[in-house]
Specification:
The complex is a heterodimer of chains A (261) and B (66). Chain A has 261 residues and is α/β, with parallel strands linked by helices. Chain A is 34% helix and 15% strand. Chain A contains 8 helices and 10 strands. A 5-stranded parallel β-sheet of chain A has the order 5-4-3-10-9. Chain A has a 3-stranded parallel β-sheet with strand order 6-7-8. In chain A, helix 4 (139-147) links the parallel strand 7 (130-135) and strand 8 (154-155). In chain A, helix 1 (28-38) packs parallel to helix 8 (218-238). Chain B has one helix at 18-24; strands spanning 2-5, 8-11, 33-36, 39-41, 56-63. The mean pLDDT of chain B is 94. The chains are: A alpha/beta (261), B mainly beta (66).
Chain lengths: 261, 66
C-alpha cells in the first residue's frame, strides 16, 4: 500500500491528522501526557487576559513549542470584529499565522454565526492568516468559506463539548465532495468510534478537546483517539466493501459432505 | 494617573511605557500581546508607547482552550 499523503496547512506538512486542545484538563501534567499519547502535531489554545500580577504557570511551560504547532482560537467571539482582533493579538503574541476561527452566534448551542464567520475569514485570509474556520455542517457555507480564502473548513460533528458524535455524516460527505481544501471535523466527537467515523467518511482530520480532557483517563483516551484516527484513515484509504441487505456466504457452497441417509 | 488593565482600575506612574507597565505587573513579554484602547501595540513599540490617563489596556496570552 502506498504511504499516506500528509495534511498540509499553512505550507507545513503534518503526519498526524489529530488536532487536540488545552482546555478543561485536571492539571497541566495530565494535559502534557495526553498530548504526547495523542501523537498530535498541532495544539489549540485560547487567548485570554493574563491574571495580575503576572506570575504563575503558563500552559506554554507544558507545551514544547518547537515540536508542536500552536493553533490559537477565537473562542468566545460573537462578532467578526472581535474574532479579527483576537487573531491579530495571537499573531502579535508570537503564536503564528494560524487561526482557528470561531464566530459564535448563540451561547446555548455555540453554533457559528456564518455571516460573521465569512466576513472574518475574508479579512484574515487577505491579511495573510491561515484561516481554519469552525463552521456548521452546511455544504453551501463550506463552499463560501473556501471562496473567502479559508485554508480548510472545519464542520462540527455535533455542538462543542457535547460528545454527541457525527450527527450528520451525509452532510459531511457532501462537504467533502464540495470543497477542495481539507475538511477537518471540529467539535462533537465523544469517543474513539466518532473519530473513526469522521476519518472513514474521508475527512482530512479531526479536532477535539473535551473528548480527551473530560475522559476519566485522558491519557488513555488520547491514545484511543490516535488509534481511531489512524484506523479510520486507513479504512478510508483501503476502500470499504459495499453494503448489502442480505447475506453472502463467505465459505464455498460447493464441496459440502453429503449427510443424507 | 489612572488606567484600566484587564478590566481592573489601577494607579500608575505618569507617562509609564508599555514596557514599564509589564515590568510593574511582573508580566513576561514572551507569548504576550498588548492592546491599548483597542489598538494592538507591536512588541517593537513597547518602550516608546507611553500610556495616558484613562487608557484601557488589555494584556493577553495563551490559555487552555479547545
Amino acid at each position: 500500500m502506498m504511504t499516506d499523503t500528509t495534511l498540509v496547512l499553512g505550507g507545513k506538512e503534518y503526519t498526524s491528522r489529530l488536532i487536540v486542545g488545552t482546555g478543561k484538563y485536571s492539571s497541566n501534567e495530565v494535559m502534557r501526557d495526553a498530548h504526547e499519547e495523542s501523537g498530535a502535531e498541532m495544539i489549540t489554545v485560547a487567548v485570554r487576559r493574563v491574571s495580575l500580577p503576572g506570575q504563575g504557570d503558563s500552559i506554554l511551560d507544558f507545551i514544547d513549542t518547537k515540536r508542536y504547532t500552536l493553533l490559537p482560537n477565537t473562542a468566545g467571539c460573537y462578532t467578526a470584529d472581535e474574532a479579527i482582533r483576537t487573531a491579530y493579538l495571537a499573531r502579535e503574541a508570537g503564536l503564528g499565522d494560524l487561526v482557528k476561527l470561531e464566530v459564535i452566534g448563540d451561547a446555548r448551542t455555540l453554533f457559528p454565526d456564518v455571516q460573521g464567520l465569512l466576513e472574518a475569514t475574508r479579512t484574515l485570509a487577505r491579511e495573510g492568516f491561515t484561516v481554519m474556520p469552525y463552521t456548521n455542517d452546511d455544504p453551501v457555507i463550506a463552499r463560501r468559506l473556501e471562496e473567502a480564502g479559508a485554508a480548510c473548513v472545519m464542520p462540527l460533528g455535533a455542538p462543542i463539548g457535547s460528545g454527541l458524535g457525527i450527527r450528520n455524516p451525509y452532510n459531511i460527505k457532501i462537504i467533502l465532495e464540495t470543497v477542495s481544501v481539507p475538511v477537518i471535523v471540529d467539535a462533537g466527537v465523544g469517543t474513539a468510534s466518532d473519530a473513526a467515523i469522521a476519518m472513514e467518511l474521508g475527512c482530512d482530520g479531526v479536532l477535539m478537546n473535551t473528548a480527551i480532557a473530560s475522559a476519566k483517563d485522558p491519557v488513555a483516551m488520547a491514545r484511543a483517539m490516535r488509534l481511531a484516527v489512524e484506523a479510520g484513515r486507513l479504512a478510508y484509504r483501503a476502500g470499504r466493501m459495499s453494503k448489502k441487505l442480505y447475506a453472502t456466504a463467505s465459505s464455498p457452497l460447493e464441496g459440502l459432505p453429503d449427510w443424507t441417509s | 494617573m489612572n488606567i484600566t488593565v484587564n478590566g481592573k482600575a489601577m494607579e500608575v506612574a505618569d507617562a509609564l511605557s508599555v514596557d514599564g507597565l509589564l515590568a510593574h505587573l511582573s508580566v513576561s513579554r514572551q507569548f504576550t500581546a498588548v492592546a491599548v484602547n483597542r489598538e494592538i501595540t507591536p512588541k517593537a513599540s513597547y518602550a516608546s508607547v507611553t500610556l495616558r490617563d484613562g487608557d484601557r489596556v488589555e494584556i493577553v496570552r495563551p490559555m487552555g482552550g479547545g
